[in-house]
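User: Lipoxygenase 3, chloroplastic-like. Structure?
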Amino acid sequence: MAVVDTLSTHSPDEEYLGERQQPSIWTGDAEMVEAFYGFAAEIRQIEKEIDRRNSDGRLKNRCGAGVLPYELLAPSSEPGVTCRGVPNSVSI
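Assistant: Predicted structure:
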């Protein structure tokens, strides 16, 4: 269990899908940086859609007693073990 917990823990400085601190560092191509920002905007929209669907009471498979909201592939996460987030890389 300790290994699973350690491998499942997100660090506070984790970068997730569509996030980079400074995209211009990994490429000097302005067109690539612009495409990355467009991709990041689409990822934020996906996360908003997941949150919207999770809060929609009409979707019985997402809400109710004992039913957890869908968060497995939500793009971002808080630090710790959250069952959320798609990191940019995985180290095992």
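The chain has one domain: 1-87. The two ends are 15 Å apart (CA to CA).
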